[in-house]
Amino acid sequence: MSIRVLNVAEKPSVAKEVSRILSNGSARSSRGPARFNPIWEFNYSNVEGHPAVMVFTSVAGHLMEVEFPDGYRKWHGCSDVDLYSCPVDKRVPQDRTDLKRQLEQLSRQCQWLVLWLDCDREGENISFEVMAVCRAANPRLVIRRARFSALIPRELQRAMATLGQPNANDAAAVDARQEIDLRIGASFTRFQTKQLRDRFDLSGIAAVRERIQQDGRAPVLSYGPCQFPTLGIIVQRAWEVQNHVREQFWTIHVAYREAPTAGGGSCVFEWARGRLFDEAVAEMYYEICEEAGTAVVVSVRGTTRTRQAPAPLSTLEMQKRATAKLRMSGERIMKLAEELYQAGFISYPRTETDVFDPGMDLQGIVTEHTGDPRWGRHAQRILSGELWRQPRPGGHDDKAHPPIHPTRHSLGEHDWSHDKRQLYEFVVRHFLACCSKDAVGSETQVEIDIGGERFRTTGLMVLERNWLDVYPYSGWGGNDNLPKLTVGQSFVPSEMRLRTGSTEPPPRLSERDLIAKMEAYGIGTDATVAEHIQKQLERGYAEKDEGALTFWPTPLGEALISGYCRMGLDDLWKPDLRGKIEASIRDVAAGRVSKDQVLQEAIQFFRADFLTAQQRAGMLAAEMARFLPTAGGGGGGGGGGGGPPPVGPLLGTCQSCGGSSLVLTRGSEGRYVAVCSSTSVCGYRLALPRAVADASVSSQPCGRCALSGGGGPLMRADLRFRMGQMPPGILQVHYDNGGGGGDDDGGGSHDGGGGGNGGRGRRGRRTASASRAAGRGDGAKSRSRSEPAAARARGTRANADRSGGGGAAASAAAATSAEAPLCPRHNLPCRRAVSRSTANPNRPFFTCGHSERAEQDSCGCFLWEDQWDGCRVAPMRNSGGGRGGGGGGGGGGGGAVFASAIGGMHGGVGSGGGGGSGVCYRCQQPGHFARDCPNA
């Protein structure tokens, strides 16, 4: 007795092609409630031993979406932080109810359900969505999973013969990722948009301007857990390029041209010392060589070299190679690859696998291409055994799909675009290349001596091109016309001179390099990397040079990353954390951890970051003001609109935004507050304790805030407390307080000078211990909400752990030490050392003393002892430091100078990247240039 089987594919085109192949072209089509998803019907002889009537339809990607309940979907319907704890629903949205009704109707008419969704994690998750809808309509359905990698007869027939069960772990992994991305993305998107959209004029960004013209207002400033680390990579490279300071170097250039009668060979020798950054030393060596005049050959070595054929093609490797060689974007490549797959010309294009199964008939695939005029001759040489070699494994196997390879030969269909022809040709040529032998060459290395200085040159002659013959995207070669030199032979160089040059910044970030970095950090999946890159352009966060295929951040994109860096939330834009989350999701797919465990850890971590972001929102707005004009007025940090600025005596420069004034005034309730004059942009506000009866600005600067290195000096505030209402630990009614901080109800952060135990009516400075007692009520809260930015950077938990809780007193004591300056990151005395370099012999210098404890925690600060003026060591220009590191932390590090990628200098932001202006070319350590290198 025949059974009726409902088959569901992921796309209508796949349903049509599978029906055509399995029915031998006899499938009949009809329409149901979902008019864009036809229903195909045909007979099939054997479904696990049963004759069957096959009913084939499709969905269109995900059938369901993860969303918040209705009460949480409105932006002002709940507190943003509630999005981390509220329930989430997975349901069919309104625009897919027709698909749901069609599946329900067909399920009631069938006994079996076969799932033909794409064979990756995402497809497995969609399978469970389809199962949920179909089982609700018919709980008695027998469910099977078809797994296939190409839309060709042999592959589909194999899938029908090996039906299995859907993978619940893969589906759970996608559920975990969707929920994490929803909670984090929604909360930070709302936070960014509410804080920034209406404050700043974004019309200068082309992509944003287009959205404004369409919608009438600036778009949502979206945050994505993969999107922002991708943007962070782009901004990081821009900072490295912008921060680079060219450094001059010198090298000795030697060339030799053989006489035509001797063979006419020529070569250029490279100096074994490479580059020198001291002109006098370089000239000395050059004069030695010039005096010698004659070169002596000291060694000639010949070796056989091989150039490996490429490994089989995975998705990310296809994107990296094709973007560079075919000059197409990753998004375009994936769109064309999907079309080629659905038409049956290549295998499934979303795979991490770069290893062919040993049992796969690769020579059968090669056979289909022997008649092609472009690569047929090479295919014939493979089949003859002349070039055949089993493809080398690349080391990755997702156990779902084989590497990308051609499944059908084509000379190029008449309706194919030029790009599609190019991509198909690339896939075929790559497959034939990986089935071919390695290329073989002969390399000759020659070393000469001139006056005791060594110079080297290398020549290469390709003997067997092999796979290179069919793969025009790679070259291999070198100087194949070296002079015929023998050991002991002497000659006079044809050319010898001292050349000068300068170091170059890293190149702008190419799409190939961006994809490679995302792959290395685990940002996104092989199927979503191109999508994350495209979002940078759509959101107006980055721009792409279509000619060079390189990326550069827009002022909006750079401002957002710089703002999170300023808030000390590097985890939210640096790639490491997202890579860890992706690794946890892979563990869910492998069954090593549960979905709930991964969700709990991720949500707990990001919720803490979100609360910090809310507390430091003024820093984000202030950083945006450095890059973008305020809405309805001029640009910059002064802010515009939002009411008159507060009036009162000036305390100094606001330590939160670093650009506006900090004013002492009285709030509406009569309570004294220290508030930033840029209320619309920064919004920094510090309420003094209610016990303060009177407050005035002293003529003396705050000693502690002077150490913080923030936006500028702060003056002390003289406070007089009400009788009987003094905060704990304060022994005077009249007290002069450093204007550093405090929470809304506590004593805050005070200057810990000397002082006595004066009576209730006496005025004087209290002791450091009394200062700590008054401000200890809620230490962590007080730090995060109230202290100036640079002071918070010093007060992170990592510093507290290292210093043993010495707090302000320890910092002040260290700062006054006459023996060594403080390093900017750890607030510890620097270590004194002596230079071993030839340029600066025995010259003493200071460097981070923390490197003696843990090298990875060294901030890399550097200062010659004879240049120390008694102040703390200035931090590196590009010294990052995330949460708990002084350069980033709450305020970006005291006194840090940073070159913006859009031009101009501003303080308090560390990129955490390399390649900045303070990195030694010789030893790659920060803090000095090569000419001053103490490690030379």
From TrEMBL:
Catalytic activity: ATP-independent breakage of single-stranded DNA, followed by passage and rejoining
Domain Topo IA-type catalytic: residue ranges: 167-611
Organism: Volvox carteri f. nagariensis
GO molecular-function terms, A-Z: DNA binding; DNA topoisomerase type I (single strand cut, ATP-independent) activity; zinc ion binding
Domain CCHC-type: from-to ranges: 920-935
Enzyme Commission (EC) number: 5.6.2.1
Amino acid composition bias (Low complexity), ranges on this chain: 787-802
Protein name, entry field: DNA topoisomerase
Region (Disordered): 730-812
Regions that span the bilayer: none
Entry similarity comment: Belongs to the type IA topoisomerase family.
Toprim domain mapped to chain residues: 4-149
Keywords, ordered alphabetically: DNA-binding, Isomerase, Metal-binding, Topoisomerase, Zinc, Zinc-finger
Signal peptide, first to last residue: none
InterPro entries linked: Topo_IA, Topo_IA_2, Topo_IA_AS, Topo_IA_cen, Topo_IA_cen_sub1, Topo_IA_cen_sub2, Topo_IA_cen_sub3, Topo_IA_core_domain
Highest taxon of the lineage: Eukaryota
Gene3D superfamilies named among the record's database cross-references: 3.40.50.140, Topoisomerase I, domain 2, Topoisomerase I, domain 3, Topoisomerase I, domain 4, Zinc finger, CCHC-type
Organism ancestry: Eukaryota, Viridiplantae, Chlorophyta, core chlorophytes, Chlorophyceae
SUPFAM superfamilies cross-referenced by the UniProt entry: Prokaryotic type I DNA topoisomerase, Retrovirus zinc finger-like domains
Major enzyme class: isomerase
Function according to Swiss-Prot or TrEMBL: Introduces a single-strand break via transesterification at a target site in duplex DNA. Releases the supercoiling and torsional tension of DNA introduced during the DNA replication and transcription by transiently cleaving and rejoining one strand of the DNA duplex. The scissile phosphodiester is attacked by the catalytic tyrosine of the enzyme, resulting in the formation of a DNA-(5'-phosphotyrosyl)-enzyme intermediate and the expulsion of a 3'-OH DNA strand.
GO cellular component: a single term: RecQ family helicase-topoisomerase III complex
